[in-house]
Every structure is written in C-alpha cells, then in structure tokens.
Amino acid sequence: MDRIRISAAVATYNGERYIREQMDSIWKNLSKEDEIIISDDGSSDHTLEILKEYEGKEIPVKVIKGPGLGIKQNINAALKECRGEYIFLADQDDVWTDDKVEKVMQYLSREDCRLVTHDAKVMDAALMHVQMESFFAYRGSKAGFLNNLLKNRYMGCCMAFKSSLLPYVLPIPDEIEMHDQWIGMINDLLHGNSIFIPDKLLLYRRHDANVSDFSHGTVIEMLKKRIRLLKSIRKRQKLWKN
C-alpha cells in the first residue's frame, strides 16, 4: 500500500449548502500522496451526491456511513479510517486558505511538534463580512493543559496533528463535551508541545445551522463539564499504563 502523507478528516451532515466550497478548498491544498476521509452522519439532502463528484479522481476520497450519534462520534468514525502520517480536521462549511497545509506543515513536520492549531477569521454565512478578525484574539488562545482546561481555545477545524496521537485519543469518549478540547489536551498531557500559530488559514463560517457554538453555559455547567473531562482523561491514562 502506498504511503499516505496527509488525511483530511471531514464530518458531514446535511451540508449541501457549503460542502462543495469546503471540498474545493481542501482539494487545492492536497496532492495524490494525500486522502480525504468523510464520515456522513445520515444526510437527507444532496450532500452525498455532491461528494460523489470528488470520488475516483487523483486524490483518494473515501465516504463512510457515520454512526448517527452526533458530531463527536462522527469525527471519531472518520479518524478511525485515516491512514495518513498527518491528520487535518475539517468541518463541512468552512473554507481553507490556499496555503493552509503548506503553512501548517512548516511546524508539524518538525520533530518537536505533534499538534498545530492556527488562527481563523470568523465570517458571516456568505463569507462577505468579517465578524471576528481573529478567533485567537477572541478566545485568548494559548497552549497548555491548564490553560485549555479552564477555557477551551482549541477549535477542531483549525487543528492538525501527527497520527501517532490517534491511539491515545481514540475512541473519543461520549461523556466529554468537545472533541477538539479532548484531542488538544491529551496531546498537551502526553507531549506538552502543542503549537498555536497566528496565521489565519481558515474562513470560519457562522450561520444558523452551525453545530458548534461559542457559548458554554453557566459557571456551574462549565465546572461539571470540566470534571467529566478530567475523569475521562484519568480513565484514559489508566488504559495507557496497562
């Protein structure tokens, strides 16, 4: 089997409005050494028909049936199929800049780096108006386990990591709130070398059908979520030692 350099892991669900624009932007960043893995969680619109347009071309595209259990497990299903040395996460409705992979790989190809998170511009649904010039500035983004336990600065669609991390993060637990925080903090705990780069390499589209949200509930709700997260991390640590 030929060696795969990059796997772009995409989670889709009724994404017909924006998926073609996202796929085109991913396509521009990849080569025949790469692959695109898409887990579709039961789309009832034209998403699957659009995705078929990309199959059988120079860059391998594999579409699998998601488990129908929500975004975390849909991403889990996509990651399980990835064969690349480097994993890039992608939502169905954003747009990668043409130099995203090139810029990220400048860091991720280094021996001392296992996970990269880049900045993004937050846009309106039509990508015509900037709602936030910098997601990093909005969230006060910085690396570190404790920093991201107190306030999650990871955003999955801006993350890429080495596949050597997969055995530690998979399966993604049902009881945690966010897969991106889970992946980032596991890497922080294992290696302490997550890198946040200021390059804005994604147009993050905000619209009425977004799965993710920037709000995180009350302080009590946040504390409960963090406790569940720490319990899940502790449980996973015990598995590593066995």
Automatic annotation (TrEMBL):
Glycosyltransferase 2-like domain ranges (all copies): 7-133
CDD domains, per the entry: GT_2_like_d
Signal peptide stretch: none
InterPro entries, alphabetized: Glyco_trans_2-like, Nucleotide-diphossugar_trans
Stretches of the chain forming a coiled coil according to its record: none
SUPFAM superfamilies: Nucleotide-diphospho-sugar transferases
Top-rank taxon: Bacteria
MF (Gene Ontology): hexosyltransferase activity
Pfam families per record: Glycos_transf_2
Identification of the protein by name: Glycosyltransferase family 2 protein
